[in-house]
Design brief:
Blueprint: E1 19-22, E2 26-29, E3 42-45, H1 51-62, E4 66-71, H2 74-88, E5 93-97, H3 103-120, E6 125-130, H4 148-164, E7 168-175, H5 200-223, E8 229-234, H6 241-254, H7 263-269, E9 276-277, E10 279-282, E11 285-286, H8 296-310
Parallel strand pairs: 3-4, 3-6, 4-5, 6-7, 7-8, 8-10
Antiparallel strand pairs: 1-2, 2-9, 10-11
Helix pairs in contact: 1-2, 3-4, 4-5, 4-8, 5-8
Length: 324
Protein backbone atom coordinates (compact mmCIF):
# COMPACT_ATOMS: atom_id res chain seq x y z
CA UNK A 1 0.00 0.00 0.00
CA UNK A 2 0.91 3.63 -0.30
CA UNK A 3 1.19 4.34 3.39
CA UNK A 4 4.29 3.40 5.34
CA UNK A 5 6.46 0.81 3.57
CA UNK A 6 9.50 -0.99 4.84
CA UNK A 7 12.31 -2.09 2.44
CA UNK A 8 10.60 -3.56 -0.12
CA UNK A 9 5.53 4.87 -19.20
CA UNK A 10 4.80 8.24 -18.41
CA UNK A 11 2.58 10.64 -20.27
CA UNK A 12 4.58 13.14 -22.28
CA UNK A 13 2.75 16.04 -20.67
CA UNK A 14 4.45 19.40 -20.34
CA UNK A 15 5.98 21.60 -22.95
CA UNK A 16 8.39 20.54 -25.66
CA UNK A 17 11.75 22.07 -24.94
CA UNK A 18 13.13 24.04 -27.86
CA UNK A 19 16.51 24.94 -26.53
CA UNK A 20 19.58 27.03 -27.07
CA UNK A 21 22.74 25.52 -25.60
CA UNK A 22 24.60 27.54 -23.00
CA UNK A 23 27.37 25.59 -21.30
CA UNK A 24 27.53 27.79 -18.20
CA UNK A 25 23.89 28.53 -17.42
CA UNK A 26 22.18 25.51 -18.93
CA UNK A 27 19.51 25.72 -21.58
CA UNK A 28 16.84 28.27 -22.36
CA UNK A 29 13.49 26.77 -23.26
CA UNK A 30 10.60 28.35 -25.08
CA UNK A 31 7.20 26.85 -24.43
CA UNK A 32 4.17 26.93 -22.18
CA UNK A 33 4.69 27.59 -18.48
CA UNK A 34 4.02 24.67 -16.18
CA UNK A 35 1.11 25.35 -13.87
CA UNK A 36 2.16 26.69 -10.49
CA UNK A 37 -0.94 25.20 -8.86
CA UNK A 38 0.17 22.06 -7.03
CA UNK A 39 -3.23 20.42 -6.64
CA UNK A 40 -3.18 17.15 -8.51
CA UNK A 41 0.62 17.10 -8.66
CA UNK A 42 2.56 14.14 -7.27
CA UNK A 43 5.91 15.06 -5.70
CA UNK A 44 8.49 12.76 -4.09
CA UNK A 45 10.88 14.32 -1.56
CA UNK A 46 13.71 12.10 -0.36
CA UNK A 47 15.16 12.69 3.09
CA UNK A 48 12.00 14.41 4.30
CA UNK A 49 11.58 13.32 7.91
CA UNK A 50 13.38 16.37 9.32
CA UNK A 51 15.02 19.64 8.37
CA UNK A 52 14.58 21.17 4.94
CA UNK A 53 13.10 18.05 3.43
CA UNK A 54 10.31 17.88 6.00
CA UNK A 55 9.62 21.60 5.71
CA UNK A 56 9.47 21.33 1.93
CA UNK A 57 7.11 18.36 2.12
CA UNK A 58 4.84 20.31 4.49
CA UNK A 59 4.72 23.31 2.15
CA UNK A 60 3.85 21.08 -0.80
CA UNK A 61 1.15 19.23 1.14
CA UNK A 62 -0.34 22.52 2.32
CA UNK A 63 -0.79 23.53 -1.32
CA UNK A 64 -2.62 20.33 -2.18
CA UNK A 65 0.16 18.27 -3.72
CA UNK A 66 0.13 14.52 -3.29
CA UNK A 67 3.31 14.33 -1.27
CA UNK A 68 5.51 11.24 -1.01
CA UNK A 69 7.90 11.50 1.93
CA UNK A 70 10.89 9.31 2.64
CA UNK A 71 13.31 8.50 5.42
CA UNK A 72 15.45 5.66 6.69
CA UNK A 73 14.30 5.61 10.32
CA UNK A 74 10.96 3.87 10.73
CA UNK A 75 9.74 5.81 13.77
CA UNK A 76 10.60 9.16 12.19
CA UNK A 77 8.86 8.18 8.99
CA UNK A 78 5.73 7.19 10.91
CA UNK A 79 5.80 10.42 12.93
CA UNK A 80 6.30 12.56 9.82
CA UNK A 81 3.38 10.87 8.08
CA UNK A 82 1.07 11.54 11.05
CA UNK A 83 2.22 15.12 11.50
CA UNK A 84 1.96 16.17 7.88
CA UNK A 85 -1.47 14.65 7.39
CA UNK A 86 -2.69 16.31 10.57
CA UNK A 87 -1.04 19.74 10.27
CA UNK A 88 -1.70 20.25 6.56
CA UNK A 89 -5.21 18.73 6.51
CA UNK A 90 -4.08 16.88 3.39
CA UNK A 91 -4.72 13.12 3.52
CA UNK A 92 -2.70 12.60 0.33
CA UNK A 93 0.63 12.26 2.13
CA UNK A 94 2.34 8.87 1.88
CA UNK A 95 5.58 7.56 3.30
CA UNK A 96 8.42 5.20 2.42
CA UNK A 97 11.16 3.83 4.66
CA UNK A 98 14.40 2.93 2.87
CA UNK A 99 18.09 3.53 3.56
CA UNK A 100 19.66 5.30 0.58
CA UNK A 101 23.17 4.40 1.68
CA UNK A 102 22.26 0.97 0.28
CA UNK A 103 21.92 0.56 -3.47
CA UNK A 104 19.72 -2.50 -3.04
CA UNK A 105 17.34 -0.58 -0.80
CA UNK A 106 17.33 2.33 -3.24
CA UNK A 107 16.33 -0.07 -6.03
CA UNK A 108 13.56 -1.47 -3.83
CA UNK A 109 12.45 2.07 -3.02
CA UNK A 110 12.21 2.92 -6.72
CA UNK A 111 10.31 -0.28 -7.47
CA UNK A 112 7.82 0.43 -4.69
CA UNK A 113 7.26 4.01 -5.87
CA UNK A 114 6.78 2.76 -9.43
CA UNK A 115 4.13 0.28 -8.31
CA UNK A 116 2.24 2.92 -6.38
CA UNK A 117 2.43 5.44 -9.21
CA UNK A 118 1.16 2.89 -11.72
CA UNK A 119 -1.65 1.71 -9.47
CA UNK A 120 -2.83 4.98 -7.98
CA UNK A 121 -1.56 8.00 -9.91
CA UNK A 122 -1.81 7.17 -13.61
CA UNK A 123 1.89 6.36 -13.74
CA UNK A 124 2.95 9.97 -13.24
CA UNK A 125 5.47 11.56 -10.92
CA UNK A 126 5.36 15.29 -11.61
CA UNK A 127 8.45 16.15 -9.60
CA UNK A 128 11.31 14.31 -7.89
CA UNK A 129 13.31 16.20 -5.26
CA UNK A 130 16.59 14.46 -4.43
CA UNK A 131 16.99 16.08 -1.02
CA UNK A 132 18.50 13.25 1.07
CA UNK A 133 22.08 13.93 2.04
CA UNK A 134 24.71 13.18 4.68
CA UNK A 135 27.94 14.66 6.01
CA UNK A 136 30.34 12.28 7.76
CA UNK A 137 33.33 13.43 9.76
CA UNK A 138 34.98 10.04 9.34
CA UNK A 139 35.22 7.61 6.44
CA UNK A 140 32.30 5.17 6.45
CA UNK A 141 31.99 2.45 3.81
CA UNK A 142 28.58 1.09 2.83
CA UNK A 143 27.61 -2.52 2.16
CA UNK A 144 28.32 -1.79 -1.52
CA UNK A 145 31.89 -0.68 -0.75
CA UNK A 146 31.13 2.97 -1.45
CA UNK A 147 32.04 5.89 0.77
CA UNK A 148 28.74 6.74 2.46
CA UNK A 149 28.65 10.45 1.56
CA UNK A 150 29.12 9.52 -2.08
CA UNK A 151 26.53 6.75 -1.89
CA UNK A 152 23.77 8.92 -0.38
CA UNK A 153 24.55 12.25 -2.07
CA UNK A 154 25.51 11.04 -5.56
CA UNK A 155 25.09 7.38 -6.47
CA UNK A 156 21.68 6.65 -4.94
CA UNK A 157 20.01 9.80 -6.36
CA UNK A 158 21.42 8.82 -9.76
CA UNK A 159 20.00 5.31 -9.36
CA UNK A 160 16.61 6.51 -8.09
CA UNK A 161 16.23 9.08 -10.85
CA UNK A 162 17.23 6.60 -13.56
CA UNK A 163 14.76 4.06 -12.19
CA UNK A 164 11.86 6.55 -12.30
CA UNK A 165 12.80 8.62 -15.33
CA UNK A 166 10.03 7.35 -17.61
CA UNK A 167 7.42 8.34 -15.02
CA UNK A 168 8.71 11.87 -14.28
CA UNK A 169 6.72 14.41 -16.27
CA UNK A 170 7.89 17.86 -15.14
CA UNK A 171 10.88 18.46 -12.85
CA UNK A 172 13.90 16.86 -11.25
CA UNK A 173 15.29 18.99 -8.42
CA UNK A 174 18.70 17.99 -7.06
CA UNK A 175 19.63 19.65 -3.77
CA UNK A 176 23.24 20.77 -3.93
CA UNK A 177 25.37 23.21 -1.94
CA UNK A 178 27.41 26.37 -2.38
CA UNK A 179 30.14 24.38 -0.62
CA UNK A 180 30.76 22.29 -3.75
CA UNK A 181 34.39 21.77 -4.73
CA UNK A 182 36.13 23.29 -7.75
CA UNK A 183 36.99 19.94 -9.33
CA UNK A 184 36.73 16.20 -8.79
CA UNK A 185 39.71 14.10 -7.83
CA UNK A 186 38.76 10.95 -9.73
CA UNK A 187 41.45 9.04 -7.85
CA UNK A 188 39.92 9.91 -4.48
CA UNK A 189 36.14 9.71 -4.97
CA UNK A 190 35.85 7.03 -2.27
CA UNK A 191 38.50 8.41 0.07
CA UNK A 192 41.10 6.04 -1.41
CA UNK A 193 43.97 8.48 -0.82
CA UNK A 194 42.64 10.55 2.06
CA UNK A 195 39.30 11.47 3.52
CA UNK A 196 40.13 15.15 3.90
CA UNK A 197 39.48 17.63 6.68
CA UNK A 198 36.71 16.08 8.83
CA UNK A 199 34.70 15.08 5.79
CA UNK A 200 34.62 18.39 3.95
CA UNK A 201 36.42 17.08 0.87
CA UNK A 202 34.03 14.15 0.51
CA UNK A 203 30.98 16.37 0.98
CA UNK A 204 32.19 19.11 -1.39
CA UNK A 205 33.12 16.58 -4.08
CA UNK A 206 29.73 14.90 -3.74
CA UNK A 207 27.90 18.16 -4.41
CA UNK A 208 30.05 18.98 -7.43
CA UNK A 209 29.40 15.48 -8.77
CA UNK A 210 25.67 15.98 -8.24
CA UNK A 211 25.77 19.15 -10.32
CA UNK A 212 27.79 17.43 -13.02
CA UNK A 213 25.47 14.48 -13.57
CA UNK A 214 22.51 16.85 -13.36
CA UNK A 215 23.89 18.96 -16.22
CA UNK A 216 24.65 15.83 -18.23
CA UNK A 217 21.14 14.50 -17.62
CA UNK A 218 19.57 17.79 -18.69
CA UNK A 219 21.37 17.49 -22.02
CA UNK A 220 20.33 13.86 -22.47
CA UNK A 221 16.67 14.60 -21.68
CA UNK A 222 16.70 17.52 -24.10
CA UNK A 223 18.12 15.36 -26.86
CA UNK A 224 15.52 12.67 -26.20
CA UNK A 225 12.62 15.17 -26.15
CA UNK A 226 11.82 14.17 -22.58
CA UNK A 227 9.43 16.68 -20.94
CA UNK A 228 11.23 16.94 -17.58
CA UNK A 229 13.65 19.72 -16.71
CA UNK A 230 16.59 19.29 -14.31
CA UNK A 231 17.80 21.87 -11.81
CA UNK A 232 20.32 22.01 -8.97
CA UNK A 233 19.23 24.09 -5.98
CA UNK A 234 21.24 25.37 -3.05
CA UNK A 235 18.54 25.44 -0.36
CA UNK A 236 20.16 28.09 1.81
CA UNK A 237 22.17 27.96 5.03
CA UNK A 238 19.60 26.31 7.26
CA UNK A 239 20.22 24.91 10.72
CA UNK A 240 20.16 21.25 9.73
CA UNK A 241 22.00 18.11 10.84
CA UNK A 242 24.34 18.46 7.86
CA UNK A 243 25.27 22.03 8.80
CA UNK A 244 25.87 21.04 12.42
CA UNK A 245 28.03 18.06 11.44
CA UNK A 246 30.12 19.98 8.93
CA UNK A 247 30.34 23.50 10.29
CA UNK A 248 29.74 23.18 14.00
CA UNK A 249 27.64 24.75 16.72
CA UNK A 250 28.47 28.37 15.87
CA UNK A 251 27.36 28.12 12.26
CA UNK A 252 24.32 26.11 13.31
CA UNK A 253 23.31 28.72 15.90
CA UNK A 254 23.34 31.66 13.47
CA UNK A 255 21.84 29.85 10.47
CA UNK A 256 18.26 30.24 9.37
CA UNK A 257 15.73 27.82 10.79
CA UNK A 258 14.50 25.23 8.32
CA UNK A 259 11.02 26.76 8.32
CA UNK A 260 12.53 30.01 7.01
CA UNK A 261 13.89 28.29 3.88
CA UNK A 262 11.51 27.56 1.03
CA UNK A 263 13.69 27.47 -2.08
CA UNK A 264 13.04 23.78 -2.71
CA UNK A 265 9.30 24.38 -2.72
CA UNK A 266 9.84 27.43 -4.95
CA UNK A 267 11.74 25.23 -7.40
CA UNK A 268 8.75 22.91 -7.68
CA UNK A 269 6.12 25.54 -8.41
CA UNK A 270 7.80 28.54 -10.06
CA UNK A 271 6.89 28.65 -13.79
CA UNK A 272 10.26 30.22 -14.66
CA UNK A 273 12.06 26.93 -13.98
CA UNK A 274 9.90 25.19 -16.58
CA UNK A 275 11.41 27.44 -19.25
CA UNK A 276 15.00 26.33 -18.73
CA UNK A 277 16.96 23.27 -17.67
CA UNK A 278 20.45 22.31 -16.54
CA UNK A 279 20.87 25.26 -14.18
CA UNK A 280 22.32 25.77 -10.72
CA UNK A 281 20.34 28.13 -8.47
CA UNK A 282 21.42 30.02 -5.35
CA UNK A 283 19.00 32.39 -3.62
CA UNK A 284 16.58 31.79 -6.50
CA UNK A 285 19.04 33.19 -9.04
CA UNK A 286 21.14 31.26 -11.58
CA UNK A 287 24.72 30.80 -10.42
CA UNK A 288 27.77 29.68 -12.36
CA UNK A 289 29.10 26.29 -11.33
CA UNK A 290 32.86 25.74 -11.32
CA UNK A 291 34.23 25.44 -14.85
CA UNK A 292 35.09 21.80 -14.23
CA UNK A 293 31.39 20.99 -13.81
CA UNK A 294 30.76 21.86 -17.46
CA UNK A 295 33.58 19.75 -18.92
CA UNK A 296 31.82 17.24 -21.15
CA UNK A 297 34.76 14.88 -20.82
CA UNK A 298 34.62 14.99 -17.03
CA UNK A 299 30.83 14.63 -17.08
CA UNK A 300 31.05 11.53 -19.23
CA UNK A 301 33.79 10.02 -17.06
CA UNK A 302 31.64 10.58 -13.97
CA UNK A 303 28.55 9.23 -15.72
CA UNK A 304 30.40 6.04 -16.67
CA UNK A 305 31.56 5.61 -13.07
CA UNK A 306 28.02 5.99 -11.74
CA UNK A 307 26.63 3.53 -14.28
CA UNK A 308 29.27 1.05 -13.20
CA UNK A 309 28.66 1.63 -9.47
CA UNK A 310 24.86 1.46 -9.65
CA UNK A 311 24.48 -1.04 -12.48
CA UNK A 312 21.90 1.32 -13.97
CA UNK A 313 21.73 3.81 -16.82
CA UNK A 314 19.00 6.11 -18.09
CA UNK A 315 16.90 4.48 -20.81
CA UNK A 316 15.68 7.26 -23.09
CA UNK A 317 14.32 7.51 -26.64
CA UNK A 318 17.08 8.15 -29.13
CA UNK A 319 15.27 10.91 -30.99
CA UNK A 320 17.17 14.18 -30.99
CA UNK A 321 15.62 17.63 -31.14
CA UNK A 322 17.05 20.22 -33.51
CA UNK A 323 19.00 22.99 -31.85
CA UNK A 324 17.68 26.49 -32.40
Amino acid sequence: MLALARQRTASSGGHLLQLVRNFTLGYEAFGEDAASNLKGKVVLVTGSTDGLGKHTAALLAQQGATTLVHGRNRSRVQRTLRELRSHTANPAVYAYCYDMSSLSQTRAFAEHVRRDLDQHFDGRLHCLINNAGVFNEELVLTEDGLEETWAVNVASPFLLTASLIDLITERIINVTSISLSEKLDFDNLQGEKEYGRVGHQAYSQSKLALNMWSFALAAKLHKARHPAVVHCIDPGAAATKVLLAGWGEVAHSVAMRAYECSDEEWAVRDPALARCTGRYWVNRKPRLSPKFAHSLTAQQRLWDILVQQTGTDFVLPQQAVAEA
